[in-house]
Amino acid sequence: MPARIEVRFKLEVVDAAGESTRSRIRSELGIAVDRVRTIEVYTIDKDLSAEQLDQARQELFTDPLTQDSSLNRALGEDFDWAIEVGFLPGVTDNVGKTSKDAVAELLQAGFSFEESVYSSRQYLLKGELSREQAEKIAARLYNPLIQRVQIKSRQEFLESNGMEAIVPKVKLPASDRVDEVSLEIMDPELEKIGKEGILEKKLADGKTIRRGPLALSLAELRIIRDYFREQGRSPTDVELESIAQTWSEHCKHKIFAAKLDEIDSIFDNCIKKATQEVRKSLGKNDFCVSVFKDNSGVIRFDDQYHLCYKVETHNSPSALDPDGGAITGIVGVNRDPMGTGQGAKLALNFYGFCFGNPYYKKQLPTRDREGKNPILHPRVIFEGVRQGVEHGGNKSGIPTPWGFLIFDDRYMGKPLVFVGTMGLIPKEVNGIPGEEKQARIGDIIIMAGGRVGKDGIHGATFSSESLHEGSPAAAVQIGDPITQKKLHDAQIEARDRGFYHSVTDNGAGGLSCSVGEMARESGGCEVDLEQVPIKYSGLAPWEVWVSESQERMTYAVPPEKLDLFMSVMKKHDVEATAIGRYTDSGQCVVKMRGKKIMEVNLLFLHEGLPQMTLHSLWKEPKNQEPELAEPSGEELKKQRIDLAGRLNLCSKQYVVRQYDHEVQGGSVIKPLVGAKEDVHNDAVVTRPILQSRQAVALSTGILPGYGDIDPYAMAECAIDTAIRNVAAVGADPDRVALLDNFCWCSSHDPERLGQLKRAALACYETARKFRAPFISGKDSMFNDFKGYDPAGLPIKISVPPTLLISALGIVPDSRKAQSLDFKFAGDLIYVIGLTRAELGGSEYFAYLGERDRGERWIGNQVPRVELDRALPRYHRVFQGMEQELFSAVHSVGMGGIGFGLAKMAMAGEMGAEIDLGMIPTEEGLKIQELLFSETQSRLIVSISPEKNRRFEDIFGYEDFALIGKVIPEPELVFTSAGSEFTRIGIRELKENYLKTLGW
Amino acid sequence: MAKPKVLVLTGYGINCDLETEFGFNLAGAEADRVHINSLIMGEKKLGDYQILAFPGGFSFGDDIASGKVLASKSRVRLGDGLREFIERGSLVIGICNGFQVLAKFGVISDQPASKYQQRITVTYNDSGRFEDRWVWLKRVSKKCPWLDGIDALYLPVAHGEGKFFADQNVAGAIQANDQVAFLYAKPDLSAAQGEYPLNPNGSLSDIAGVCDPTGRILGMMPHPERFLSFYNHPRWTWLKDDLRRKGEPVPDEGAGLKILKNGVKYFS
Question: B5-265 maps to which CATH number?
Answer without folding.
Answer: 3.40.50.880
